[in-house]
C-alpha cells in the first residue's frame, strides 16, 4: 500500500513522496500560491489514514506512551537535522529513492539503517 | 491554474491517506516494533523487513516503467557527498533512539499528541537549525 501510494503520487504529481522533504518544504520554501500547500495536505492525509485505520482496528498496542522525554527530544533533533542535511528519510530514500534505483538513496539507506542498528545495539536493545 | 492547484491538493490528501493507512496496517507506527526490527544483535524481530520489501516490490518496477530518460540521467548524476553521508548517519541515530521516523510519527500524532510533541517539535527545530548551519539545500 505504501508502494502503491508512492507510485500513484509520482504519476499524478511527478514528485517524490518523501515525508521529511514535505516537512522541510513547509518550513522553508515560500508559499506564493495556494498550490504550494500540497505537502500539508499529504501530512493531514497521513494522520487521516491512521485515524481511519484506528476506527476499524485496535491500534492501542502500537501506541507507546511514557517513553523517556530526553530520548524523544534527542531523537527528534537528530532526525530533523539529519533528514535536512541528508535530504531524505525512510520514505524518500528508502522507498522512493531505492525504487528509482538512485545510488545516492541506496547509500543513504544503508547508512541510516546501519547507524540505527548500532544505536539500538548500544542502547541494549528494546528495554 | 486554480484548478490544478486544487487537484494537486486532493491528490496529495488521498495519497497521504493511503500512505498513513499503510503505515498503520504494517505496524510501522509502533516504535517498539521498529526498534525490535533494528535490534538485529539482540532480540531481532525481522517482520518489518516485509514492509520495506513489499513497498519496493511495487516501487522498483513502478518507477522503472515511469521514469523518462532525462530523469534517469539526472538520478545517475547525483553525487554521494559528505552531506548525504553525515545527514543520513545522524538521521539513523535519531531513528534508533526513539523508533520514530517522520512519516509514522506524524501519522500517529493525533492519537498520542502529548507524547509525540516531544519528538515533532524538536524535529522542526532540528530542521531550522540545520538550515542555519548548512544553508538552504
UniProtKB/TrEMBL annotation, chain B:
Pfam families: DUF6691 (PF20398). InterPro entries: DUF6691. The keyword Transmembrane helix applies. The chain crosses the membrane at residues 50-68, 80-97, 117-134. It comes from the Bacteria. Keywords: Membrane, Transmembrane, Transmembrane helix. This is Transporter. It comes from Kangiella spongicola.
